[in-house]
Specification:
9-stranded mixed sheet; 6-stranded antiparallel sheet; about 25% strand; globular; about 475 residues; Aminopeptidase i, Domain 2; alpha/beta; Aminopeptidase
Length: about 475
């Protein structure tokens, strides 16, 4: 099947719409580098569009009717949005589902130490990463610290122009002969991904703590750089070293999303897997009018580590939210909930690999996505012999094709790469357990899981158009 370059189909007006949409998306990336930050941005956005918080409606005993918009946040890391349709929910919903977590470094619970005159924070990488890509680049720290008194301190340092940044060191090339002989997955070990956060010892009484003679002064001189960092944390954020125990701090690449290429056709940024599909899904929910079937958007945490935990797709928070929404429409029963989920249609909104000519041997060129050629459908994911895969049925794909042809949405079909090389998964198989129709679709990404990933502006825009068409017209 021939791949059609989306840019060739756009009018000058559409080109301007693509650029405007890309600017909104880049702003979303800059302000949502963690799950919590994404949720904050999303809630602020949807409340302006008329969405009401589910628990407040339950507390007020308010019933829901067609056209009402409601959302439920779970643990500040996942969200489900619903726009009630004209038809009863037992006839099913049209669901978009993406994830808002991305590969990164997480700071451990006992992280701060000093060695060789440097203060370090010990980290544990999150998700599938090439560890060597994370050394010698500017890094920022985002997250929260929960103190014993119940207060929470937000941390965001490394993004502003006058902020300090952090980094992981690497061995100079002049001494790296043995290092360069290692396999790529061993060049940088996981335990070597600790970030350097300081080098200046704490100043005591106008003098540094170094070089003292008596025992008390020697004790004061011990770990003086670490103590300097603790002093800064106390004065700046009001936190102590033991507060790291109840902290969630994520280390991410510092810097803003940027346009890429002389033609500015691409976006280069951290976290596009899968915030590109999350943003497109969010915007689609805000763009639709009144729908026949209830429209739903799920944006979840923990996909990069198997969708586990209370905020991952394997938890019951989504099912519980659907049950509560059905109760407010007056149609809840256990059987009706099962019917609703089984009769639903879903697009698992997740990214796919983009063809990279530099590594062409890793792809089946007939079955791979190309940057700039539109929204991507993956009939199945998984690895090798479709292990761990959701595999969409032919009838559902035919239904989606008819919708996209009618709405003139440019799309392509793909697999992640060559069959025996490996693969990946999404949240699709989890929703498919309810018996609903599910297929993976989203945006092609170059450099997937690297600190800086690349997408096509046209693909992002076309994917949003596809999600709108799906929410409005899917009914199988």
């Amino acid at each position: 099947m021939e791949h059609k370059n989306t840019w060739e189909n756009y009018t000058a007006k559409q080109g301007k719409e693509v650029d405007a949409f890309a600017r909104e998306y880049m702003d979303f990336l800059d302000n949502g580098k963690t799950e919590r930050e994404c949720i904050d941005v999303i809630v602020n956005t949807i409340e302006k569009a008329g969405y009401k918080e589910l628990d407040s409606l339950i507390g007020a005993g308010r019933k829901l009717k067609a056209g009402d918009k409601v959302y439920s946040v779970w643990m500040n890391k996942s969200i489900a949005m619903f726009q009630i349709g004209r038809k009863g929910m037992t006839e099913g919903m049209n669901i978009l589902g993406a994830h808002i977590d991305s590969p990164r470094l997480d700071i451990k619970q006992n992280p701060l130490y000093e060695d060789g005159g440097f203060a370090y924070l010990d980290t544990h990488y999150y998700g599938g990463v090439k560890k060597y890509q994370w050394v010698t680049i500017p890094l920022a720290i985002h997250g929260v610290v929960a103190k014993k008194d119940g207060t929470t301190v937000e941390i965001n340092v490394g993004e502003e122009e006058d902020d300090p940044v952090f980094f992981v060191s690497d061995l100079l090339i002049h001494l790296a002969q043995e290092q360069m002989e290692k396999k790529a997955n061993k060049v940088i070990e996981g335990e070597a991904l600790d970030i350097i956060v300081g080098n200046k010892p704490l100043v005591l009484g106008g003098r540094t703590a170094k070089g003292k003679d008596n025992d008390a002064e020697k004790d004061a001189a011990k770990d003086a750089v670490k103590k300097g960092i603790i002093d800064i944390l106390q004065k700046t954020y009001g936190i102590e070293e033991e507060d790291f125990i109840s902290a969630e701090l994520e280390v991410v690449p510092a810097g803003r999303a940027r346009e890429a290429g002389f033609d500015r056709s691409m976006i280069l940024s951290y976290g596009q897997d899968d915030r590109v599909c999350a943003f497109s899904s969010l915007k689609a929910m805000l763009e639709i009018g009144q729908t026949e079937r209830t429209a739903c958007c799920i944006l979840v945490d923990k996909e990069e580590i198997g969708s586990v935990g209370a905020t991952g797709m394997q938890s019951k928070f989504f099912e519980n939210a659907v049950a509560e929404v059905m109760a407010l429409t007056g149609g809840y029963s256990e059987l009706n909930l099962r019917r609703c989920l089984a009769h639903s249609c879903m697009l698992s909104s997740d990214v796919s690999s983009a063809f990279d000519p530099t590594y062409a041997s890793s792809f089946d060129k007939k079955n791979v996505a190309f940057l700039g050629c539109g929204m991507v459908f993956n009939k199945f994911t998984g690895s090798r012999g479709k292990s761990g895969s959701n595999d969409a049925n032919a009838e559902y794909i035919g239904h989606i094709r008819s919708i996209f042809e009618k709405e003139k949405v440019n799309f392509q079909t793909a697999e992640l790469g060559k069959v025996d090389l490996g693969g990946g998964g999404t949240i699709a198989y989890i929703l498919a357990l309810y018996g609903m129709n599910v297929i993976d679709c989203g945006v092609a990404v170059l450099n997937m899981h690297a600190p800086w990933e690349a997408t096509s502006k046209a693909d992002v825009y076309e994917t949003k158009r596809g999600y709108v068409a799906f929410l409005n017209h899917a009914s199988l």
